[in-house]
Specification:
199 residues, alpha/beta, Rossmann fold, 5-stranded parallel β-sheet, 5 strands, globular
């Protein structure tokens, strides 16, 4: 293959890159709905399905997904415990939580456990797809209000006005806190409890 054709093939291959997703959800109907929705996205593919934390961790090790999409409540164990176990392996694979629980109550907990985003199950499918793409870009996928609160808690100070009003400011804040929170989890600065109840 000559050089121009090789470059063209490499470009086409990059354009066809598929993100492999592990779906962790204990309700069969919900899990099927998620999988069917992802099937409409040509660059997203489900590489495994799990209903328990143990099953999810085993699939994570064997399938090596590019992203984990997990519920908080599982048949055995819970999503926060799973996040901590994945981070304990030293993995930086993005983790996005999809849950029926209130975001304002649990988003900060999952972020501090090592996840990169939180989406409510009542959100439209477009929001879930958008959140998946956000965390794949290395951003936090949270509502502006929750991001604002998380940053306020992390810094111990109030946000400046431009962060209240600007979407660009919101993205900048999310980017600024994403790495430190992740690194703290990976460094062991965040406790890695093993209780099954949601902390």
């Amino acid at each position: 293959m000559n050089e121009p054709n090789a470059k063209t093939a490499a470009t086409a291959s990059a354009a066809r890159k598929v993100t492999r997703i592990l779906v962790v959800e204990d309700h069969a109907l919900v899990r099927r709905g998620i999988i069917d929705m992802l099937a409409h996205e040509p660059d997203l593919r489900v590489c495994g399905e799990a209903t328990t934390g143990v099953e999810a961790l085993n699939l994570f090790k064997s399938e090596k997904p590019d992203l984990v999409l997990a519920d908080l409540t599982l048949r055995e164990g819970n999503g926060i415990e799973l996040i901590r176990e994945i981070r304990a392996l030293g993995s930086r694979v993005p983790i996005l939580v999809l849950s029926m629980r209130e975001e304002t109550m649990f988003a900060e907990r999952v972020i501090r456990a090592g996840a990169q985003g939180y989406v409510g199950k009542s959100a439209p499918s477009e929001r879930l797809i958008s959140a998946i793409r956000q965390v794949l870009r290395g951003e936090l996928a949270l509502s502006p209000d929750v991001t604002e609160r998380l940053v306020t808690h992390a810094s111990g100070s109030y946000l400046q006005d431009d962060y209240h009003l600007s979407e660009a400011g919101h993205r900048r804040i999310a980017e600024e806190i994403a790495a430190p929170v992740r690194d703290a989890c990976l460094a062991g600065a965040v406790a890695t409890g093993s209780q099954r109840a949601i902390p």
